[in-house]
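Is this the right way to post structure tokens for a design question? Let me know if I should format differently. Anyway, here goes:
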């Protein structure tokens, strides 16, 4: 059980800044409350700028303006928010526990999404889904929620010891170190292909209707389970799998290969109503596995001993590369469906199976690389931690 103790200690000049001491048995963190720190600054920036863009979106501007808004949201959410979220969870986690904790966080993320989805449905239903005012009120509501989260993150997310150095300016050498790390690039490659099939398996739902003639009831059940049940439990379960296996990469490899098998089964089965129930079960299973695997992807960074000093940069790179399929996959699959009708589903499943194989390949490559270079990676991580600590000590002495 953690004990929470409060103390006061001057950080710089005449400023008295409250510190929080978190005591977890033998492990203790001193956490200065400093709004200039990475997590307590960029998290509000990600939230607040996304909120402002959402408010702009609520005015339902022209299509050109919407392109600008969506590009902006890509920067404020993917580049800023997601990377810092990963680092915050890393800062409160032992290295061996990060994969479990990030998986649990996806469960919380799913629960929050469930609640918001019900509220969204209620707003649209009250104003009628086709009414312009309903969409605008919904967007203003979401923008307000995001803005409140930004304010709360500014007030309550602390700076963690060792999170950043005492340098007054941004250190571009950290970016260089991240860009030169094979672990980060291998993890980013695995993330790219996992996210590709994670989003792509959603096509199994329309496949049930278009190709197999499934009833609305079956499709609705599959949709509800995949949207709510799977999201709530798959992340935590895969997080615990990852901790038990002591390797996120092993779980990613296993999960990706199971996805390949599931997709191949859908490919070879006859596309008629006789297999609707089996196909629905496979669709739910694919959703469960892909969601769970996606939830532990950033755990490969701790497996590869990526130092805390560049962890934020690493997760930013992971997010930028990993979410790239959003820029082309829907257009690609849409064009296949326009050209080939129901036959496109077989092509899509083959493409997704190929992506799952490549995801397993990248994860296996990272596993091999870490095994061959474990001593060096551990030494580099410890050296980075010692350097960060020396900066903290120097800052304490200077103050």
């Amino acid at each position: 059980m953690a004990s929470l103790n409060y103390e006061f200690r001057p950080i710089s000049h005449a400023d008295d800044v409250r510190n929080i001491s978190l005591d977890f048995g033998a492990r203790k963190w001193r956490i200065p409350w400093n709004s200039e720190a990475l997590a307590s600054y960029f998290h509000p920036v990600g939230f607040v700028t996304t909120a402002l863009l959402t408010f702009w979106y609520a005015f339902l501007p022209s299509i050109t303006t919407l392109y600008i808004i969506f590009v902006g949201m890509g920067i404020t959410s993917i580049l800023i928010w997601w990377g810092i979220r990963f680092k915050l969870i890393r800062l409160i986690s032992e290295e061996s526990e990060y994969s479990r904790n990030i998986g649990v966080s996806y469960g919380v993320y799913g629960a929050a999404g469930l609640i918001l989805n019900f509220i969204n449905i209620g707003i649209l239903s009250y104003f009628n889904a086709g009414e312009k005012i309903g969409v605008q009120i919904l967007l203003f509501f979401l923008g307000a929620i995001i803005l409140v989260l930004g304010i709360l993150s500014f007030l309550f997310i602390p700076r963690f010891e060792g999170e950043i150095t005492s340098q007054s300016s941004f250190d571009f050498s950290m970016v260089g170190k991240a860009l030169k790390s094979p672990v980060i690039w291998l993890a980013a490659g695995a993330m790219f292909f996992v996210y590709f099939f994670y989003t792509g398996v959603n096509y199994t739902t329309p496949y049930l209707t278009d190709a197999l003639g499934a009833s609305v009831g079956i499709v609705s059940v599959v949709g509800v389970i995949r949207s709510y049940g799977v999201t709530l439990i798959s992340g935590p379960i895969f997080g615990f799998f990852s901790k038990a296996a002591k390797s996120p990469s092993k779980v990613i490899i296993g999960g990706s290969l199971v996805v390949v098998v599931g997709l191949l089964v859908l490919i070879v089965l006859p596309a008629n109503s006789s297999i609707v129930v089996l196909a629905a079960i496979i669709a739910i299973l694919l959703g469960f596995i892909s969601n769970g695997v996606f939830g532990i992807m950033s755990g490969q960074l701790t497996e590869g001993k990526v130092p805390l000093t560049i962890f934020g940069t690493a997760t930013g790179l992971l997010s930028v590369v990993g979410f790239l399929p959003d820029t082309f996959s829907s257009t690609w699959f849409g064009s296949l469906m326009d050209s080939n009708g129901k036959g496109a589903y077989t092509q899509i499943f083959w493409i997704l199976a190929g992506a799952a194989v490549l995801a397993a390949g990248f994860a296996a490559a990272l596993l091999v690389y870490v095994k061959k270079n474990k001593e060096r990676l551990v030494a580099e991580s410890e050296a980075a931690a010692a350097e960060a600590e020396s900066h903290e000590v120097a800052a304490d002495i200077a103050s």
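Format looks fine. Someone answered above. Worth noting: DSSP finds 15 helices and three strands in the chain. Residues 1-41, 162-170 have pLDDT under 50 and may be disordered.
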